Amino acid sequence: MYRILKSFILLSLVNMSLSQKIGKLTPEVHPPMTFQKCSEGGSCETIQGEVVVDANWRWVHSAQGQNCYTGNTWNPTICPDDETCAENCYLDGANYESVYGVTTSEDSVRLNFVTQSQGKNIGSRLFLMSNESNYQLFHVLGQEFTFDVDVSNLDCGLNGALYLVSMDSDGGSARFPTNEAGAKYGTGYCDAQCPRDLKFISGSANVDGWIPSTNNPNTGYGNLGSCCAEMDLWEANNMATAVTPHPCDTSSQSVCKSDSCGGAASSNRYGGICDPDGCDYNPYRMGNTSFFGPNKMIDTNSVITVVTQFITDDGSSDGKLTSIKRLYVQDGNVISQSVSTIDGVEGNEVNEEFCTNQKKVFGDEDSFTKHGGLAKMGEALKDGMVLVLSLWDDYQANMLWLDSSYPTTSSPTDPGVARGSCPTTSGVPSKVEQNYPNAYVVYSNIKVGPIDSTYKK
Ligand SMILES: *[C@@H]1O[C@H](CO)[C@@H](O)[C@H](O)[C@H]1NC(C)=O
Ligand SMILES: *[C@@H]1O[C@H](CO)[C@@H](O)[C@H](O)[C@H]1NC(C)=O
């Protein structure tokens, strides 16, 4: 699948959903972006990397240049079934700035929310690469991961997410030879929701059983899903934030089928091999409503340095993960994560005790422990994970699980229901796209290294 036409000049369409010709060849040129590796004592080495946009955002077409997929439906002639479709379809290069609203500058990347070219593009999902054909693998067990973020232009309903997933570093092209495009074209995505909206998974198309979304003109769900462990370092807008590990029984990318995928698209959310909920630390949800937001202790009007530390039992990079700690740096001040004020849930770290107590007190299903908890998350981190930088709005739950009261049927005063001060009527994607077309997020200054090596002045 995703064969790339090498010898023929393609007329590029604006994106897979709108199929309007812009009459230009589109070579795949990844925007460059640096990051740093630090060592004990705080000296850091700059590494040249680059970003690539996820294959799911791209134009997929036949050898003749016809769309394989338009809007939220497949072309039944080119794509009658998973195998034929994979053989017939080609992924094209991306115009990062004009079509996807993605720009880089030295150590930073900016993701715009709505980009109007000849079509309308909503958000993006990027992966950091070490070179043109391989994703960078980050090994952060026993280490810390630090970055700067500007969420000042992300209102209710938006989510600027920076996270790690256990994707294959080559996008899966070695394991699945029918995937000829590989990491260079952003293939191989997976996460702990075992997403079924991906057009290609494990060398196969996802046409069989495809049901177009009822409320999203660009997506649908097929029979296949793509599972892997996910460590959400950062999911945030200017009103709320969460840090959330999601382990899977098998950490590395694997394909799932239909309802056994679990997650939001399946009849049983908890029926898959991954933990779709995770164990989240959201300061607001943990009782401190004055900690994060505009003009609050962590002021979302200005750039925030976010430090996430992965502490092991023996302090090594191959020990057992026992705690995830969060620090923020703003105006030169190092600020610890706020401490839980919820009865029966203590502290400000994500550790086994916190997670077990939180699930109990909030009355949430403990799928986190069921899928191996922090120890299992640590194994995934040890093996190395791919960095994802994204900006999205939420066609399933209006992002209320992050920034409002959720579920909306529960009383906002019940423990765990209030997660942020956004109204329960906010976050409707059509409104968000209409009201905040100029929203954007900037991620910069990414650093990894031993504990306390990346943020001290
Ligand atoms: C690209 O990066 C991968 C992994 O980081 C490495 O194994 C490979 O040798 C690199 N390829 C080139 C051409 O530098
Ligand atoms: C919220 O967190 C800040 C910083 O840790 C602290 O100073 C403040 O007292 C906390 N507020 C509440 C209500 O716990």
UniProtKB/TrEMBL annotation:
Domain of life: Eukaryota
Enzyme nomenclature, EC number: 3.2.1.91
Name of the top EC class for this enzyme: hydrolase
UniProt-listed GO biological process terms: cellulose catabolic process; culmination involved in sorocarp development; glucan catabolic process
Region entry Disordered, spans: 409-429
Protein name as annotated: cellulose 1,4-beta-cellobiosidase (non-reducing end)
S-S bonds: C38-C44, C68-C89, C79-C85, C156-C422, C190-C228, C194-C227, C248-C274, C256-C261, C279-C355
Bilayer-crossing regions: none
Protein family (similarity comment): Belongs to the glycosyl hydrolase 7 (cellulase C) family.
A Pfam family recorded for this sequence: Glyco_hydro_7
This protein's record includes keyword ATP-binding: no
Species this protein is from: Dictyostelium discoideum (Social amoeba)
Signal peptide: 1-19
Catalytic reaction(s) noted: Hydrolysis of (1->4)-beta-D-glucosidic linkages in cellulose and cellotetraose, releasing cellobiose from the non-reducing ends of the chains
Molecular functions per Gene Ontology: cellulose 1,4-beta-cellobiosidase activity; cellulose binding
